[in-house]
Amino acid sequence: MVSSGGGLGESPSVEPQKYAQEPEHRTGLTQCLLEKQRTAVEREKVVSSLLDMGFSDVHVNELLSIQPGTHPQQLLDIISELILLGLNPEPVCVALKKSPQLLKLPVMHMKKRSSYLRKLGLGEGKLKRVLYCCPEIFTMRQRDIESIVGVLKEKCLFTVKQVTEILHRCPCVLREDPGELEYKFQYAYFRMGIKHVDVVKTDFLQYSMTKTKERHVFLERLGRYQTPDKKGQTLVPNPLLKDILRVSEAEFLAKTACSSAEEFGVFKELLAREEEESEGRMADAGSPEEAGP
Predict the structure, then answer these.
(1) What is the C-alpha separation between 247 and 253, in angstroms, rounded?
(2) Taking the CB of residue 9, how many other CB atoms lie within 10 A of it?
C-alpha cells in the first residue's frame, strides 16, 4: 500500500533527472565564459594592432563603436586594407563612420576591390578624396565601375593617366549614368571647345549638365562665348571655365556675364521650356506612329 501511494515511489525517478542536467548547464556556462574571454583577448589584440597602425585611443574607441556587433578581427581586416591603400587613420575613421556598411563586407571582396582600385591608380593616398565623396566605391557593383571607366577610355578617349585623375578629382562621376557622362563630355568638347586636358584640369565633369548649359548658353546669347572653329579660334575672347562654373551665381552674373539676376532667371525658364519641347519632339519622332512604314 505504501509503494502505491506515490510519495516514496516517485522520488528515485525525479531527483536523478534533475541532477543529470546540471553538468550540461555547467558546460554551457563554461563555454559562454570561454567565448567571452576569447572575444576579450581578440579585442585587446585588435586594439593593440590599431594603436600600432597610428590610430589614437579616441580613434580606436570610435572604430569599435561604429558597428558594435562586428567581430574584432573583421574590423581589423577591413581597416588594414584601407591602410594598405595609402589612407591615414583620420580618413579611415571618417570613411567608416560615413559608411559603416563597409565593415560588413567580406574580407575577400575588400581585397579584390582594393586590387582593382590600385590598377586604376587609386592607391598611394589618392583614395582619400574618392572615399570622402563616393564611399560606395567599395560596395557598388564591379561592372558599374568598369562601365564608367570604359566610357572615359573608349568613348571619350581619355588616356589611362587622365582617367585616374578624373576618378581622383571628380569621384562623383562613378554615380553617373554612362550615357549621360558621355554626353557631358561631348558637350564640353564639341559645343564649348574644351580639350581633354582642360576637362581634367578644370574638374568639368563634376558639374551638372543643367548648371553648365544654363551658364554657357546664357553667355552665348549675350555674345560673350563662342564655340571655337577648327583652328580653335573665336571672334570674342571666351571667359575661363573657372569663371563660368566654379564661382557662385552672383559672381558669375557680376563678373562674367555682366547681367542681372532677373534677366538670368527669365532666361533659365525659357531654356527649360526649350529643352522640354526639344525632348518632346525627339520622343514623337521616335514613336511607332511617327516612324512610318
Answers:
(1) 10
(2) 11
The residue written with cell numbers 534533475 in the block is: 18
Cα–Cα distance, 215 to 244 (Å, whole number): 7
pLDDT of residue 232: 87
Rounded to the nearest 10 degrees, the angle between the axes of helix 178-186 and helix 142-150 is 20
Task: State pLDDT tens for residues 28-57.
Answer: 666 676 666 666 778 888 889 999 999 999
Determine which of 34-43, 104-113, 214-223, 230-239 has the lowest per-residue pLDDT on average: 34-43
Distances (CA, A) of 231 to 158, 181, 220: 21, 26, 19
The 8-class DSSP code of residue 232 comes to: S
Strands, E, within 204-293: which ranges? none
Burial 62-83 (b: 16+ CB within 10 A, else e): ebbeebeebebebbbbbbbbbb
Band of residue 167 on the pLDDT scale cut at 50, 70, 90: very high
d(CA 232, CA 196): 14
Cell numbers of 138, please? 567599395
**C-alpha to C-alpha distance for 19 and 70, rounded to whole angstroms:** 38
The whole-angstrom separation of Cα 241 and Cα 68 is: 47
Cα diameter, the chain: 125
